[in-house]
Amino acid sequence: MSVALESIASAVGRRYRALRTSRTLATFCANPLNVAGLSIVTAITIAAVIGPLVAPYDPTTQDLANRLQGPSLAHPFGTDQLGRDLLSRLLYGARLSLGIAVAVTTIRLVLGTTIGLLAGYTGGWVDEALMRLVDIQLAFPGLVLALVIAGILGPSLRNVMLALAVVGWASYARLVRGTVLATKERDFVRAARLMNVSRFRIATRHLLPNVAGPVVVLATLNMGTVILGTAGLSFIGLGAQPPTPEWGTMLADGRHHLRTAWWIANVPGVAIMCTVLGFTLLGDGLRDVLDPNHETTLEKRT
Amino acid sequence: MMDTAPTRRQLLTAGVGAGIVGLAGCAETSLDAEADGTFTIVPTADPTGTGDSWDNWGGMTPYWTRVIEPLVWGTDGMQPQPWLATDWTATDDTTWVFDLREGVTFHNGDEMTADDVVHSFEEDILTERGDFVHGWLHVEPGSVDRIDDYTVSFETTEPFPGFPGTIAHNMIDIQPAEADRRAGEIIGTGPFTLAEMEQGQQLRVERFEDYWGGAPEPTELTFRAAEDATTRTDLLVAGEVDLIYEPATSRIDGLRERGDVRIETEQSSGSVFVSINIHREPTDDADLRRALNYAISQDEIVTTVLEGVGQPASGPLSTVIDWAADEELPAYERDRDRARDLVSQSSYDGEELTCLVENDMDDGRTLVQILQEEYEKIGVTLDVEVLESASLRDRTDRGEFHLELGTSQSNSPAADYIMWENFHTMGISNKDLYEAEGTGLHNLGGEVDELIETGFQSHDPDEKREAYVAAQREIMDAGVVIPLFYREYVVAADAELEGLDLHPIDKFAQWGELTRTT
Amino acid sequence: MDTAPYLVHRFGTSLVVLAGVSVVTYGLLFLTPGDPAEVILSQQLDRQPSEAEIEAFRAEHGMDEPVPLQYADWLTDVLRGDLGTSYYSDASISALILDALPLTLELAAASVVVALALAIPTGVLSAVHRGTAIDRASQLGALVGVSMPNFWLGYLLILVFALTLGVFPVAGAGSYSQLVLPAVTLGTGMAAVLTRLVRSSMLDVLDEGYLDTARSKGLRERIVVYKHALRNALVPVVTILGVQLGALLNGAVVIEIVFQRPGLGMLLVDAVFERNYPVVQGITLFTAVAFVVTNLLVDLSYRYLDPRVELGGDPT
Questions:
Q1: Which of B97, B151, B195, B375 gets the highest tally of CB atoms within 10 A of its CB?
Q2: Residue pLDDT, tens place only, C216-255
Q3: Which residues in chain B have Cβ-Cβ distances shorter than 8 Å to C48?
Q4: Nearest residue, CB atoms, C32 vs list A152, A235, A280
Q5: Membrane spanning segments where (chain C) (predicted)?
């Protein structure tokens, strides 16, 4: 595992150095949408990191005397049905919502990459079996299966994350396997094989760095879909338990006030929209840079 | 069970057929039928009765639609009122004799007689509905007998003075033997006949000209499904429907300001309270339970998140029930210092208390978060779990919770069963755990059981009241529940509508006088 | 690759996948915390069942047999077309699905129309003005819709078009006007993917030589673009619709709730909440099988739609 991480890190490092010197950075910056995506994601990440430090109020402290207050100096985004400061809830929620997306995406990525690597590198019946497993996962509409799993396990954030994780790994597996198959026959891998380098070492040192680019692109695009999936499950009633300031739950709770206190639903709604948009734009930009062959597609949104 | 059901092939063909009709039925239908005499009503539950079999009577929810009727109805004062039966007498401790109304015509043209009453009770109610009905009505199969064409007798399993009020319930209805409710064929005696049903969408009924109480004003009523309060409110505001039950709380103020909408509120037979599991640590400690009571301000809840709809409660029973205690009960005005003292006296040791609430309870998420915040202030940590009904029942059946926020409402004038089922050791909430582990949930046992039995079996209104009030006092003394508010329900309608006849039991509304002023 | 071996392989793998799908679907039941028999029975009885009752229930439903045998029984019934009956009514699950399906299909079809109506002009505009501000604005516009949680979009559309402007109904099903807002909500989400696809395949086609031939014949540029290029560019768009079926079903779950349409999604959510496991299994299996079969058909028809495609490549 540490070898794998190390090699990914070194690959990213190499790419970063290459990025600085080559035309890649220029390519990325040439499209303002890419820059916009990067800026949004950076902003959200900063909010998630320092949010709780700068939030003006406690996210769960109620103030019934000041409920449903519109945006003002004291409460820039207003207060909710229990008089809680919406800005503070949003800032605390950034960490939570982004954390969920990162965690789910990481599980998907690790699981999918491992399976894809194994399938692509081993070949034969192992490949065949693993790819059928991938087909089976892809046969279920993601949110439908996640809803069933989370519903049976019971409503909680942990179960939502679990459900979203197990319905999204297959696209990584398929992507990684494809890249591995293409890379496997390239000269440097053949050379390593002739030099009796161990299979594990070939996989981690030579194959993994080559799949890193497309996988990073897919993971970036995936962040958005996970956030939307969480919001959808929260709306159905399987999300976070009160008073957790998770964005999807805040949006779902606020919808009853859409006509009377628009900010309660629309503030987390816009936050979700911007975050998803940011990750999608960034993912598209990264694809131009890291995956020029456009091997990653995101036709199946969950 | 399945022998009367159609074969799978028949069902499949029927399904495909319905599918095609469904697609073909995409033609425009008039959204707001302005023709006089037709009204669209949106109740709180799906009128076509998807979901819980409790509420599903042959594909139609028995409530609201006034297609089928019971022998007894309820007055606005929650007293039994003659309906398909004109009179009843207890001939001994356990026998009730009912005189039937003559000249009542079923929707198929036949006259209702004692045979239909015996059939409905013996076959449909006592057999098909299952065992729970026996405990509820205190009648077992084989104890309903025809005396003559218009007289029927019932033998209860024990003295049960509340019997007439208990069978005044929409589900205890009379249908002839010919009605095959499983096939969706419903033949009632009510002022409206079932005309058309689209599963999960709407149900249409038409005026029954031969209704024994005289033909109703409306020619046609459509009951639409919209279980979400915001959707119901939107439907009314957009003019797609004429009358809705329970608009979203956040919208009530806005609706009041509109000239084209009238708002009616009616105190309901329901009340909202937190019931405490007194057989689980640490809520088995009465000091802690009292502390939880002292931490809450009912007034504040009603005036803020409920927008003034509802009355602050000091007991578990709606005050429309004539033996409900309110002022006689110990008052728990909010007093945080006292609450903190009680907490420190108690065995509470900083652990998390679990509070359950059902996910589709109106304002449930909001209320439970208020509890959470208030208890935080007295040093008690509350872990909230909003669950769907199945998980919730699972947890309460096992007693794996400390607090449960819920509504208790009587759908018949005799509300005895609220006391019995919640607080008597042999009531439905407590019986299983009592029998299995000698515990229960909300049962103090001993004297409270005796008082509930006395109230339950007493023919004398004063004696009954005295016993029940004493039981409620003990329950509140020991802090078994945290009363929040007596429910009021809201009906919002087109301002042109006249002749609304609401009832403390929201499901007892009559539509016979409904007209439109133009 | 020859057609015959390809077909055999394709059908073979589809069968394997379907078998796997059935195992997963059946296995869902075992995710329930606690003993399924006890959970089901306490639901049905509305109280805690006794040990004896649980035993009797297990025996009656073959739940005392080893799990593989139970699965085999279930699968045999399913293969005969019998998905079982709902716990709470005597309705057969096949009938429940077939009753709810038309509303969902109607919504899906209308959303595809909306998505295409949005995606084709936007994608073409984007491609023709490649690299310009128009291109970027179109791409961004297409992405905004897909970035919104669709229940939020649905409620906003109700607020604007049903309550403020009063042009479409709030909720319900049965008429065309009631279909508009849900279809727009669901279609907007799908439009982003399609726009991107129209744009890139337009770019591919625009780069091909024969357009120059067409242009040189003196036809006006616009007609060239729309007639020749678009027709060729739409081939991959049509084929991706099969893959999009899953996305449509995902969206339908939420949108049917928002707009009170008793379709497949609402049936599933109700069943999940009621723990009506046979219905949950039936719908899950049905959607997965529909997806596998649709994609098999799409794969096969691909060959006829676009003769340039060589069979046997990885579908992605």
A1: B375
A2: 666 666 676 667 777 777 777 777 777 788 888 889 999 9
A3: 397-398, 432-433, 436
A4: A152
A5: 12-31, 107-128, 140-167, 179-198, 233-259, 279-298
User: Least CB-CB distance to C174: which of B29, B132, B239?
Assistant: B29
- Residue B49 gets the label, from left (phi > 0), alpha (psi -120 to 50) or beta, of left
C152 to A265: CB separation less than 8 angstroms, yes or no: yes
- Is residue A123 over pLDDT 90? no
Contact partners for chain A, using 3 or more CB pairs closer than 8 A, are B, C
To the nearest 10°, report the CA torsion of B319, B322, B324, B325.
Answer: 90
Chain A residues in contact with B251 (beta carbon < 8 A): 256, 259-260
Mean pLDDT of B345-355: 95
Q: Is C211 inside any structural domain?
A: yes
Residues of A in contact with B387 (CB under 8 A): 154-155
Q: Which C residues in the span 90-129 are in contact with B, Cβ-Cβ below 8 Å?
A: 90-92, 94-95, 97-103, 106
Q: Confirm whether A83 is domain-assigned.
A: yes
- The 10 Å Cβ neighbour count of residue B39 is 23
The fraction of chain B above a pLDDT of 90, given in percent, is 74
Q: Measured between beta carbons, which residues in chain B are less than 8 angstroms from residue A261? A: 250
How does pLDDT run across A154-173, given as a tens digit for each residue? 888 999 999 999 999 999 99
Query: pLDDT per residue over C160-191, tens digit each?
Result: 999 999 999 999 998 899 999 999 999 998 89
**What ipTM does this complex have?**
0.88
Distance CA C142, CA C120 (A): 11
pLDDT-derived band at C197, boundaries 50, 70, 90 = confident
C touches which chains (3+ CB pairs under 8 A)?
A, B
Contact A148 C268 (CB under 8 A): yes
In a domain, C46, yes or no: no
Contact A117, A184 (CB under 8 A): no
Cβ pair C31, A152 in contact under 8 A: yes
- Is the pLDDT confidence value at A210 over 50? yes
Residue-range definition of the domain harbouring residue C246: 94-305
Q: Which run of H or of E encompasses C295?
A: helix C277-305
For residue A8, tell me if it sits in a domain.
no
pLDDT confidence tier of residue B381, bands split at 50, 70 and 90: very high
Range of the domain at A288: 33-60+78-301
Count of structural domains, chain A: 1
Are the C-beta atoms of residues B100 and B69 closer than 8 Å to each other?
Answer: no
